[in-house]
């Protein structure tokens, strides 16, 4: 059984963190049995200690390593892995008969859909170049969402359980520090964002997604066309989701959960580009369960 470590929020769904959603999407897509173990933000380090892991993620300023989730522990192999990209790689390699998120699976090859001849042993290792592309895509997506980070952090902060609030607030202020030129703040509550600034930030995200991703994600179409088929899995031109789809999905589901499905913010995002981003997340609906 696989354990997925995630930090809970106070909303009924409990799971809202974009990065842990990436790993959850992958586990759900692969239909691998797993359970979520909820760990308070200020306790994430204990997961690393328990499984003998070292911190692998650096803050946005590139200076400081920090303990981050997702982490998974696979009791079948006794292995623990940190970082969503490494988790996806591990799952692709360890469970080659499940649908791959970085390329054709053994199952696909067996079905004759793969890139190799039948009867030839399939190398289950994930290609370094594919991993690098996925990492580039992750960095691109993060940079596109950057203008709304202060808004997202403040919104997420509303749903953090009381015991984790001081830790979460100071961690997010560290993340924002390289991009924020105002006076030193001691809490996210002190970060004031005017209505005008908020409107400007959302507008910037709309433009960023249009310029940065629109061409890579096909239009929802009318249910008959190729557009609908290619709404996910665009990275290698396929019709199946890849890790990149779950990266974008992680950010979109974070906005939807943090603000709520009926919020002006989510309704706004979901309707941009003729409903492209809302339709995109809908397409990932089969993989949105929390186990
Ligand atoms: N690149 C990492 C990022 C992980 C990450 O930053 N996770 C956040 C939750 S969404 C976290 O654990 N933050 C803890 C902190 O900021 O101290 C991944 O995709 O796994």
TrEMBL record:
It comes from the Eukaryota. InterPro entries: Glutathione_S-Trfase_N, GST_UstS-like_C, Thioredoxin-like_sf. Residues 7-99 form the GST N-terminal domain. This is GST N-terminal domain-containing protein. It comes from Coprinopsis cinerea (strain Okayama-7 / 130 / ATCC MYA-4618 / FGSC 9003) (Inky cap fungus).
